[in-house]
Amino acid sequence: MYKKIIRNDILQSKLITITTVIFVTAAAMLVSLAAIVAVNLYGALDTLMTKAQTPHFMQMHAGEIDIERLTSFAQQHSNVEEFQVVEFLNLDGSQFTFGERSLASSVQDNGLSVQSRSFDYLLDLDGQVIQAADGEVYVPVGYMKDNVVKVGDRAVISGKEFTVAGFLRDSTMNSSLSASKRFLVSSNDYAHIKSQGHPEYLIEFRLKDLAELGAFETAYANAGLEMNGPTVTYALFRMMNAISDGMMVGVILLVSFLVVAIAFLCIRFTLLAKIEEDYREIGVMKAIGLRISDIKKIYLAKYAAIAAAGSILGFALSFVFKGLLLENIRLFMGESDHTALAYVLAIIGILLVFIAIVIYVNGVLKRFRHISAAEAIRFGSLQEKHTGARRITLSGSRLLNTNVFLGMKDVLSRKKLYATMLAVLVLSSFIMIVPQNLYNTISSKSFIGYMGIGSYDLRMQLSGNVDNFSEKVADITRAVQSDQAISQFAVLTTKTFRVKLRDGTEENIKIELGDHSIFPIAYTKGKAPAAENDIALSTLYADDMGYEVGDSMTLVMGDVEKKLIVSGIYSDITNGGKTAKAVFSDQSAGTMWSIVSAKLYDPALVAVKVKEYSETFDYTKTSDIDEYVKQTFGSTISAVKTASYVAIVVAIAITLLISMLFIRMLVAKDRYSIAVMNAFGYTSTDVKVQFISRSIFILIIGVLLGTILANTLGELLAGLVISSFGASTFEFTIDPISAYLLSPLLMAITVIIATLIGVAHVGHIKISNHIKE
What we know:
18% strand
């Protein structure tokens, strides 16, 4: 019986059924995709780090190294499972040539390595440990994605010819957020080129108990071992590898939740419309003694069938699109070992959507209890109560056209009826605007404020382990100082110190020394360091060490302790989010690097100046700041850009379908009123203008509310993601043309088109066919 009723009902209301199935399909597909991508991201990352045996603790070091002392420390520490020192031969980007292309403009620290002995393996694209033969070079996979090089290309590195034998995945340096990139060569080739570069060392440990990593870091710092370079831990490796695709997953999840909410609104609206259409029949069924539970089953069966069809179709479509979303994950991390789990969780997610729909429909159907059989049989429809617009009269409104006035008044007098469409437009605006704002923010030049970098045009970075380092920094400084095209410049030098914590233990801390007032950054709390005893901390440092503005901290400088006061706390997503800034002078600690930054009178000259300084000072990494941000954060920007475009398409599709469905149902509901207006001389054009006025009125309110929601709740949600890797405060950088003009205009055009389609047949409504008793 139910099968026949469902089939007949679907045939009578094809548009409603198709639209409802589309929304359930979209919701199920997005939930399935979010589950598949999230699990594959976690699984692929876990597989990569397991196969590569990623270090739990890595101390990068430039300068002299005492292997025996390090080995003794590793042997004496009970938590150390494995220990090794890996050499990294730092070479200037100009020394790498692939065909006609050079890495001279790369902001990365490109260098050569040989395959590790015990762990931290470099893997090929099949996940196997690579053994490079003489004359072969394996290139980081990021350069494959950027189309810099392909397998079989001729490469020249420091004058020696190589053949590109393949690409490698590096679990410690895959991410663009990592400042270094390793190229793999044979031991013989490495020995041949070693004298032409600057060796750095990766001091690596794998621990028996990863939970004791914090205690191990403290023990390493207290032992006074080599630490002239960044310190990176297992958790930070995971975060850097996952962040780009993780942000994409976050956007998909956000859109998924919103589409599920819209699907529920759509179901509620279509269900209430169907109940009203069947109002007299429901009254008859109640009058003849049919139980409410039996009446509910008729409707529940239909929507259960729609939910089942939409869920199955959504699951099938997720297989169509998953390849596109998993492409980047597969390239950088390989296949996941949790593929089966991904599909299981996707099915569970879809089942939850299906069950939620059935429960929701059952809840809406409870209103059958309040339907009076006598009233339903007599009137054949629910008797609406028009409220909220009694004081608004046509005679009192001289500014508005009559049809526009009637359309707006109808919205105000039947608020509950239009609430569904309003809610959908609010959510659609939110879906469209939030990813756009997030993309505009992380791609804007002002985003460097979250990277602990001031606003300048030119950046020259010099590694601390180059020969005659101080003299070379002085040469660059004199050249910049005498350059008439440069308006301002600053020299900032990063060194590693030890800080004594409140519990008496010591920890490494990287401090950038120099004048921080020239290119100031924004501070979450407090201000930039100005006095000799001032220090500013990044958010992650401040949180980890438990310091607030005004607190005192002790710095260990050789055998001397220096008292400092925390002057400010700022956001920073570079170097793992752990940096500090101060202005005091120091000669005791080894230099990690120096950065000479400059602002030009004419920013259009930045490309010329980059080329000029790159050629003059070929031992530095010279880049314009936009290129630096692009290379450092480019993959994340690209992922969010793709997600923002998808969100726009989804929002437009939702707006079109819901608006069209709503207007079609509204026309059916108001057919008697339309027929009366036609009888009084209103033309079909007048009626269409009234409906368009209703739609635009709701659209204006919806877009305003959606924009406010996007700039408050949306900013908060985006801030939670950004803060997870070092940015403590977050504000959207909004493109007003896109957010406040193009997006609303796009939605307005969509709503008008949907309305015109919905009211296309109002001219065929005749009063003779709609006389009420």
